[in-house]
Structures are given as structure tokens and as C-alpha cells.
Amino acid sequence: MTKRNVLIGVAVVLVAVVLVFVFSRSKSKATAQAAAPVEVEVAQVEQKDVPIYSEWIGTLDGLVNAEIKSQVTGYLLSKNYTEGSFVKKGQLLFEIDPRPFQAALDQAKGELAKSNGQLAQATSQLLQAKAQLVQAEANQAKTQNDVDRYTPLAKQQAVTQQDLDNAVHANQAALAQVKAAEAAVETAKASIVAAKATVQSSEATVRTNELNVGFTKITSLIDGVAGVATVQVGNLVSSSNGPPLTIVSTVDPIRVWFNVTEQEYLNNIEHNPTHPQSAEKNLQLDLVLADGTTYQHKGRFYIADRNMDLKTGSIKLAGVFPNPGNLLRPGQYGRVRAVTSLKSNALLVPKRAVSELQGSYRVAVVGNDNKVSIRPVKVGEKVDSMWIIEDGLKPGESVVAEGIQRIRPDQVVSPKPYQGGANGQS
């Protein structure tokens, strides 16, 4: 036997030994698998009435947003609040230099005093003119009496014609004095009217300047949280249509704006056919914050806009949420959720029990013999950690919720209760 033949023989023996080893190991492995089925966690298909939630993107906003603006132009002397803090209605926020406005007020008060003096003088002149009128009327009455007395006596020649003529001339002069006195009274009355107008104008000027002095102290219009100031001490503050000095927002309760489609709006009304106008008002709202947590306080529907947006086909709604401690602030985003319908006798399985493959969904069903069968299903809405199954399952069946990656069809498994369902994990 040659050396080459010896080597070939040794190689054949080694290959045979390796094949025997591999075969025996695979056989022992298969035997071990048959002896120890794969452990999986299973959940039973539940059947119950399930509330269906709708969800929308919401934007938080103050219930009232008061823009604080200056009504006078002047230099800012002080900022009297802490930015981002809660302020009360009437609390001082800013103060503008009042000296120019105080000077204008003092000048206006001086003009008012002068106008009051002119009115008093005109009133005195009127009283004097009225007294002169009374005296003139008395004199004219006396001269008229003389004329009336001398006229018959002159006809009887008991007095001379000259006496009668003198009495007539005196009466005419007295009548002229009465008319002059009446004109003086009217002139005095006109002076009083003009003086009163001047007084009223001066009073209006005083009130305007008093308002301007008051406007130098800028206060909050509402109770709320005050924003960051847009001006600094020493800046020239204008009363023109510029940006507000700050904004104070009422944030407890706080408003959340969100848009719903026209179809959702109509569907909600259809579920409340007897009271369509109050359909939205029956909505109880949840707010899911940006960190994924659900806000602890429930909200309620507040208002709906008057019209649909033609561009988006949606209507703008607002809800309000209690906000003790002012935790929520305007400008935050969140997801608004509400129960919009109720699905009766819905079949539910954990989300983890459903796997997706190329747009189709399937579950692993464990039979009474603990054998696995893969079954296609039609899915519906997701409700928390559960998934509604529209078709493919029956109530009470067991589906694999944990360990589905380790099993294959017709495999015998060792089912255990699904632990995720107890604590709401998905």
C-alpha cells in the first residue's frame, strides 16, 4: 500500500467520524426540542365595548391675551414686574417719565382757573346788566305814567302842550335806555356762554392731561402670566402702533386650539342627532403632552369657529383645561384626544400579538393542543396597548403576544399568560 492510499483512507475515516458526530448532535438537538417546547406568552382574545378615540394636534394659547401698550410717548423710567411671573389686574408693570405730562397738566389747570375767572366776570356783568335793565324799566314805567297822565290834561288845557311834549320825549328816552339795558343783558349772556365753553374746553384739557399723567403708569389689564418685556429702561416708548411692551395671558384655565376635518365634525353631529348643536360640548378632552405623558386634568369643549377653512377643509375648535400652578404655557404643542364613538363587541388583542408583513397582518394562534397556526387578520383601530381585530379571530382564542419570533407553524409551544397585558405595556 502506498503512502498516498494510506492518507486517503485516513481522510475517509475522519469524514465518516465527523458526519456521525454532526448527525448524532442534530438528532439530540431535535430530541431536546421535542422534549422541551418553546415557552411563549399568550393572551386571550377579549370581546367588549370599546370607546374609539380621535386625536388632533393642538396648540396651547391663553384664554385671554392682553397686549400691554403705551398710550403716551416718553422715556421708560422703570420695569416693575418679574418677567414670566403671575401678575394681578391693576398691578404696575412699567412707568414712563411723567414730568412733561405733569407740566402740561399744571398749565392746563392754570388755563382752567383763568377760564373760571372769565366766567365769574361774565356772570357778574350779567347781574349788573340785569340790575340796570330793572332800573331802566322802572324809569320807563314812570315816564309812561307821566305821558298817560298829561295827555288828557293837555286836551283840557290843564297843562301846557310843552309839558306833554317833555313827558313824551322823556318816555322815549326811557324806552331807549330799556332797549340798551336789554342788549347789555344779551351781551352778558353771550359772554357767559363763551366763558362756559372756554371752561369746558379747559376742563377737557385738564382731564386729557390727567389721563396722560395716569398713562405713564402702565398696569396689567387682567390677572395672568406676564411675558418678557420688549423694551428696556431708558428706551423711548411710543404710543404709535408698534409691538406691545409685553403680553399678559390668562392661563388658568388655558385654551387649546385644534382643527378637525369636516367629516369628523359631521360624524360627531351624527352621533348626537337629537342635539346637534351641543355635540361638541359633550366632548371630554385629554391632552397628551410633548413628552408623551397624559395631562392629569380633563378638558372640555369651549368654542367652534364660525366657518370651515376652505383651504384645508377643516374647522377650528378650542378646548379649555384647568391649569393650576400655571404648568402649561401658551405656545406649547400637544395631542388632543376625545372619545368620538363606541364600538360594540369589539375583539381585542395586544399590539405585540400582531405582526405586519408587506401590508398584511397576521397573528399566531395557539390551539387546544398547544400547536401554533399562523392566521391572517383584518385590523381596525388601536386602543391604548390593544388592537381591534375586525376579522380572523374569535372570542376566547389564544394568540402569541411574546415570543412570536421563535416559533413556526404547527410547532408545539408551552404557553404562559401574557405579562404585558397586566400593566398596560404594548
The largest beta-sheet arranges its strands as 2-9-12-11-10-13
Q: How would you classify the helix and strand content by structural class?
A: alpha+beta
Q: How many domains in all?
A: 4
Q: Any guess at the CATH architecture of the largest domain? A: Orthogonal Bundle
Q: Mind telling me the C-alpha Rg?
A: 50 Å
Number of helices: 5
- As a percent range, the share of strand residues is 25-35%
Q: From N to C, what is the helix and strand string?
A: HEEEEEHHEEEEHEEEEEEEEEEH
Gross geometry:
rod-shaped
Main sheet summary: 6 strands, antiparallel, barrel
Uncertain segments are 273-279, 422-426
Distance between the termini: 71 Å
* Highest-level CATH class of the largest domain: Mainly Alpha
Helix percent band: 25-40%
